[in-house]
Amino acid sequence: RKEVEQDPGPFNVPEGATVAFNCTYSNSASQSFFWYRQDCRKEPKLLMSVYSSGNEDGRFTAQLNRASQYISLLIRDSKLSDSATYLCVVPPWGFQKLVFGTGTRLLVSP
Amino acid sequence: DAGVIQSPRHEVTEMGQEVTLRCKPISGHDYLFWYRQTMMRGLELLIYFNNNVPIDDSGMPEDRFSAKMPNASFSTLKIQPSEPRDSAVYFCAWGTGDYNEQFFGPGTRLTVL
After folding, report:
1. Cα dihedral: A92, A96, A97, A101 (round 10)
2. What number of H helices and E strands is found in chain A?
3. Whose CA is closest to A48, among A58, A70, A29?
4. Which residues of chain A lie closer than 8 angstroms to B56, CB-CB?
5. Cβ separation of B45 and A49 shorter than 8 Å?
6. From first to last of its 110 residues, what are the pLDDT tens digits of chain A?
7. Which residues of B67-85 are buried (b: 16+ CB within 10 A; e: fewer)?
8. Residue A21 and residue A84: Cα distance in Å, rounded?
């Protein structure tokens, strides 16, 4: 089993839609989790951090289910500018390094 | 701007040539990371430093790759000799050690012909 697994997509949604991505991880000891966003030909940028059961920032909600070892990212009222690849990131506990999923591509259309 | 300068931004070279990639993070960080990204393999950690000391280089593909961090504000990743399969985007990132958050530079797009 891969350390971090994501559905690669693409997810094609219209503007205003709600879309959710899931990410599963294998290391049950991991304590912190992240969602990064990467635009085409750009660097990954931190979108949200999740340290407990979840986090919410405007239209974005991240939830953590430790029992089932998955993290989800919910985007409400999708905008054209949300089109990007969303990377799930899980650091092994006790280490500074990050393990990245392969990313889920989102395309928001008018 | 995540406070990381990488140079060059683009590099095209021929197989067998030496390539040196540079990273200048903002001061005050504790950790520096080098990543490589390809379509096939995604984002992979190559090596990371803590207070200028290499901590984990298990991701370095082979002896052709080497990395140094002579001081807190400068790091290099060298490939010698380069091969076409080294073509990728190489990112440098910094972290403070707080909650594992990392901040990426703009990357160097390397093409080896």
Report:
1. 50
2. 0, 11
3. A58
4. 95, 97
5. no
6. 678 999 888 999 999 999 999 999 998 888 889 999 999 999 999 999 888 888 899 999 999 998 999 999 999 999 999 999 999 998 876 677 788 999 999 999 99
7. bebeebbebebebeebeee
8. 13
For residues B5 and B108, is the Cβ–Cβ distance under 8 A? no
Q: Quick check: A9 and A105 in contact, CB under 8 A? A: yes
CB-nearest to A91 from B2, B100, B103 is B100
B45-68 residue pLDDT tens: 999 999 899 999 999 988 999 999
Q: Which long-range contacts (CB under 8 A, 24 or more apart) does A51-57 make?
A: A51/B99
The end-to-end CA distance of chain A, in Å, is: 37
B38, β-bridge pairs? B42
Single-letter residue type at B65: F
